[in-house]
Design brief:
Blueprint (H helix, E strand, L loop, with lengths): L3 H12 L42 H28 L1 H24 L5 H25 L3 H22 L6 H26 L13 E2 L2 E2 H29 L6 H29 L1
Antiparallel strand pairs: 1-2
Length: 281
């Protein structure tokens, strides 16, 4: 998948590393599908041996996602409240939280063994970072945080409804589009930062402040980035469906939830940035 966390989960499902019951690995570049002729509790031909681990359920993914998002929100609120009295706390939370969250997320992505404590730690650190960052944006653009939160919740709900209704599904083409788009957005962000750091662009918004036909580039890039984030969420939901249908071990729900939280945070940050650029213009 475009999300490196979910990509690892999808690859494991494809290779049969986490399957508990009837499972047939798909062809290269396709998504995992359960063998409709395999009986529950019996291994399909060529599938790995069963284990005694409890199979994953949608409730597992929902509960783990709720735990991580809940801890993230509490940490963000704590930094916001304390930072309103001690401004240094907001700055500290934004910098150290972002750095710590990045380091822990890398460990979570590349560590094969699933360790719940790491995902919990990530949620708290990411929450601290978002609390500090959100406070800075709110001070300059009052009301922008509430707008970003509401918009993020709406996008999450719409993508989930569309996925559950069957109107949208993850695919290899969608995955490749999201991956290429994310790389492009990353390159744009790095270039914007460098141009600002070396004084080529004096506006603190960087390349986002450049206008095309009267529209700030940041608005156009922001809208595109949010759309890509929604696509990544759809791919997350697809992997969750695959995990449940192939009977993956329940502990995998932590990794799936982690991917969902990452993409939700990504959408929120870009919405915050998009709304700020629009207001600044």
């Amino acid at each position: 998948m475009a999300n490196p966390v979910i990509n690892g989960v999808e690859q494991d499902l494809r290779r049969g590393r986490v399957a508990q019951r009837g499972y047939v690995p798909p062809q290269q570049g396709q998504f995992t599908q359960q063998d409709p002729y395999a009986q529950a509790g019996q291994a399909a031909q060529g599938s790995p041996a069963q284990t005694s681990a409890r199979p994953i359920t949608y409730e597992d993914v929902i509960n783990k996602s709720g735990i991580m998002l809940g801890l993230l929100f509490v940490a963000a609120a704590a930094v916001w409240v304390i930072g309103s009295y001690i401004p240094a706390v907001a700055a500290l939370g934004a910098s150290l939280g972002a750095l710590g969250a990045f380091v822990v997320s890398m460990v979570c992505i590349f560590k094969r063994k699933i360790t719940p404590a790491l995902f919990v730690t990530y949620s708290v650190l990411e929450g601290a970072a978002l609390g500090g960052i959100s406070m800075v944006f709110e001070q300059r653009f009052p009301g922008v945080v509430v707008q970003a939160v509401v918009a993020t919740a709406a996008i999450f709900a719409v993508t989930l409804i569309l996925f559950k209704s069957g109107y949208v599904r993850g695919s290899s083409k969608l995955m490749k589009f999201a991956l290429i788009s994310l790389v492009g957005i990353l390159i744009y962000s790095i270039a914007s930062w460098l141009l600002t750091a070396f004084g080529v662009i004096t506006n603190p918004m960087g390349a986002d402040s450049i206008t095309l036909f009267g529209i700030p580039l940041g608005v156009l890039v922001g809208i595109f980035a949010v759309v890509v984030g929604a696509i990544c969420l759809i791919l997350d939901f697809e992997v969750a469906r695959q995990a449940v249908e192939t009977g993956a071990a329940s502990e995998l729900s932590w990794r799936v939830a982690f991917g969902i939280v990452l993409d939700t945070v990504y959408i929120y940050v870009y919405l915050l940035r998009l709304l700020a650029v629009a207001r600044d213009n």
